[in-house]
Amino acid sequence: SKREGEKREKVKEREKWKKKEGKGGKDERKRKEKIEKKKATVVFSWNSLPEVLKSILPQNYSYLIENFNELPSYRTTENFIIPQFELDVFVDIDNEERAREWFMAFESKSKTTMPETKRYEFKGKHVLFREMRHCIHSDKVKKKQGSREIKRQQSSQLRNTNCTSTIHLRLERWRIELSHPLEVNIKFTHNHVIISAESLSFRRVNEKVRERFLELFKDGHSPASAMYTHEDELYLSAADEQELLLLLADRASNPDYDYIFNLFRQYRQDSLGDRNGSAMFRRLAEVVNDYNNSGKGRAILQEYDSRSGKAFILCVVTGLMSRVHEKILQSSEICYMDASASFEPLNTSITLLYTSCAVGALPLGLFITSDELEITLEKALNLLKSILLQHAFYGRGAQLGPKIFLTDDSSAERNALELCWPESIRLLCTFHVLQAFWRWLHNSKHYINKADREPIMQKMKEILYAPSDLEMHKYYCEFKQRFYGYTAEDSSFYASLHAEFIPQDREGLQMETTTPNSNLTIEYSESNKNVEDDITTFINFLEEIKEDYSNGCAQLHTALNKFAERYKAAKLKSIPRLVSFLYDINRELDPAVNIRSGSMIRVQVESVKRRKTEGSGRKRKPFSITNNKENLENSDPQIIPGRKTKKIGKKEHNLSKNVLKNQLN
């Protein structure tokens, strides 16, 4: 029985082999017949194709047409006639890469967009390449992409028109031996106008156009400027108006702004890295080192670190800035300092130092900071001084600085300049003085009549631009006589400006005393003559400060050291300057505190609003990614918190105290 079973199995195996050989022989015969049949078919070059096929099939290929069936034309609701046909054709393409290139050329030639709707899985044994695609306006594409909310149902940009046009590409291994291996089945049955603005707006962007935008980004263009530059190039390249309209409407040649912006964001991410955190600073450190090694200028970087309290600072002195320091005499005489923000999401501040000459404004240096605190600006100025050359400020040197600094009424900027360049004179910019006064006049809280705003502003200009003290006093008296004591609505006095001279017949007594160092003018109030100093209380206060300094943290040490430096710097100027400095500290806590020192105009615009960030009086909320403490502790300490951009008119000017300081050393 065992032997009989073995014989039966051998017989079965032989029969299987015979069947396989017979089947293989049949397949081989069929394959040879197909090859002979294809060889007998007529091959068309592109020039010999029918006109309707020339409008959609790419050039530089030869075609073997197996079936071409023209269908009745379709008439749209706009009364346009769309040709309809079915085509089975073979193309002289023998690999997947060239097949994809042919399809991209087909879309470009026919002005259609046909996404892939069915993906075939093939191992490459029999089928090398296969794709099924539908028109982008078909119902199948809409279902595949998911439902989208359309605000305007009758919009011309409606994607789904139930278009039935398809294209099927197939490349089989056995056809490789043929002259035209790639099989293409086209069902050209569009039910919409192909060359129209709405249809062309759905097209894919051409790869060459994409590369052109990347080149523009490398040249320093923003998304907007790159778009305008590309449109100008389209205007110049168009042969006539009709071609220009087609180029501008076609998304393949003229992408929309959203595409350009997303491409720019991707380019920026790939070329520059992250926009915040440790990765950004690593990349920035490399850029700074490369810039310093290039010989084009100098730069210095302080990385942001929330744990150690370090602010982000980047100082730059370009080759042009160095030449301005060396060649321009005005760089030793006057330097303007102005800060701007709201340029990018982190809202960092860009502070520019520049001078002026016959050709206009010329830069002397710049620095970028993560905030506008006084301690940050002081550190930035010191870092900037470290990269200035020996001939800085036309030979005066980086330590001495220019003779005059012109700024607005930012206390942080003025105090930082006073610490870094104490020998320089700090003057207020007349534009910012008038700007602050203008905003005060137009603030509805002050109830200034519209009819009075113009004459008040005119008188203020006369006072500000007076060529001498006598004329200034004359204009001031006219201003006081006309507007002081006048009561506006809600009993709001125009005299709330608190701008006044101190007459000799006032109760206040002005007395000059002489000290070994300098002649000091000290102003006393009659109410303070009989006040005795409580020495014991003051000594206890000093002991308390000493104890706080000994037991305090590093930030408190830094703050007290800065206070000591400012105290000494103010004392070297004059006793009135020292008194003004001490009252300024009290003013941050009590806005009602006023101080009179010297014989200058004291314009005390207490309610004028401004955007400029104040100095040490500003309090910032600690940055936190989430409310989870663990996430906060594990977060990147080099992530710069984004500062919120506040509207103009949210912060108070310190014009009064800065006018008091606007005097010669």
Automatic annotation (TrEMBL):
Disordered as annotated region, ranges: 1-32, 610-642
Feature: compositional bias, Polar residues: 624-637
PANTHER family in alphabetical order: PROTEIN B, PUTATIVE-RELATED, PROTEIN B, PUTATIVE-RELATED-RELATED
Protein name: MULE transposase domain-containing protein
Organism: Rhizophagus irregularis
